[in-house]
Amino acid sequence: MFEQIFPNLFVLYSPGHSSNAYLLVGKKNIIIDTGLKGNSPLLEDSMKAIGLSPRDIGLVIITHGHADHFGGAGMFKKAEIAMHAHDAEFVNMHDEIFTASSFFGNRYFPKVTMKLNGTETIDAKPFSLKVIPTPGHTKGSVSLHDEKHKFLVSGDTLFIDGVGRYDLPSASKYELTASLAKISGLDFHILLPGHGLASRNFSPETALSFL
After folding, report:
1. What are the φ/ψ torsions at residue 110 (nearest 5 degrees)?
2. How far is CA 188 from the centre of its chain?
3. Between 20 and 30 A from 156 (CA), which of 75, 99, 164, 198?
4. Which of 157, 3, 10 is nearest to 69 (CA)?
5. Which residues, listed in sequence order, are joined to residue 23 by a DSSP beta bridge?
6. Structural domain count, the chain
7. Which domain holds residue 186?
8. Which domain CATH number covers 104?
9. Is the peptide bond before 169 cis (omega within 30 degrees of 0)?
10. What is the mean pLDDT of the chain?
């Protein structure tokens, strides 16, 4: 079930290989990452427990183009699907190697309709999400920073005790290092990673120490 980080911000710690899912309730209800398709019943039940349904979601943001983050997006029939333009091309082509779909046994691919380039700020009052390009795990990885509420959704770029793999298609240790340096200069203390526990007292300057 969803755990509340603070008012209007929730995390679902998904089982198995599925990514965490984050729910932002506001002017526009947003899901960030969905986990695999098999995670959908848990995600839907978790939403029902707080009075929402998949039809209430207006935007699904996928932090990067791996199936363990987008496989459950099909349940959000009314939502726009957003992803960085680089990774979106592979997802829209149903590229099983780039997306690791063959590894995860994934057969579902969303249609990405909102291609991010890293200059956007997404208005979802009370939240304002600045899209931060953080390549390294994939070329099109992004993080989402809310400076007012001091949180960063980091996808698989950064975890509370490590970093994402950089030996996959389009990954780069050099780019990951640069992304971690960028993150270390951001103003936040709540880290919301793609897998594993969230942290309410994270020190951004420690990001580079995990490489």
Report:
1. -75, 160
2. 17
3. 75
4. 157
5. 10, 31
6. 1
7. 3-210
8. 3.60.15.10
9. no
10. 97
